[in-house]
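Sequence only, no structure available. Ideas?
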Amino acid sequence: MTDIIIVGAGTAGMSAAIYGLRAGKSVLVFEAAAYGGQIINTPDIENYPGIAHVSGFDFATGLYNQMMDLGAELKFERVTSVEDAGDKKIVRTASNEYEAKAVILATGAKNRPLGLEREQEMIGSGVSYCATCDGMFFRRKDVVVNGGGNTALEDAAFLANYCNKVYLVHRRDAFRGDAAAVKELESKENVEFVLNATVTKILGEKKVEGVEVTDKLTGETRVIEAQGLFVAIGQMPENQAFADLVDLDAGGYIAAGEDCLTRTSGIYTAGDCRTKTVRQLTTAAADGAVAALAAAAGIK
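Reply:
I predicted one. Tokens follow.
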């Protein structure tokens, strides 16, 4: 019997582990892929208080080392279900079953795909969801960025520094991101806005050679020759496995306030997987602390 089981080893999950261990509880963390979450793909973090610059990998490694030094146990297994059995919770993976007094769901979120034919098979051959990770592969080439929020705007600005031409495709006539970021892009000669349009087809056999774009107002199609397609249309959580324990909103996020409490006693949530307005490193770490301290306080 473990005191606290944490599902997910991103910033929220590892922060929760640190606070749970410091509260004197035993902690077991499950991670389906690699510890660190999406932040490991960020080359330079500039907005975490007290740390002017740090790579996402170094930041995640610091959290991991701190968590493990305090005595956390980490298992690389995908959690398939959690059962509420009153005073204990039963956590199941594909091959094992574990028991805990409390569970913290810190499953994060993943990049939302466009849902186009051959999109998944073209990942690594021109399709990417991380401009800072893959942008340098497209130096002096033409690329398309699909999206209208801050991430899309930031990706386009980053790529404009290295690429020959950047086409920014958005389904509406105005961007949802910051006006200052839009103004900055308007000043760049190698950035072209393609508004009221969506990417409807990926062109090329073994690698991306272009995209088909459809005008939402007229229905007319246009071919943009490009070697890269960067998708930046938001994220989506993976919480359906826990739908019988927690309430999910329309987007699939776990319904919980700043106290990180779910509707089931002993089940908490933290980080990008829960309903919230701001999803940043600071809020993920804060959620981890709040959820862990609440879990520790609830253990008899």
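DSSP finds six helices and 17 strands in the chain.
Hope that gets you unstuck.
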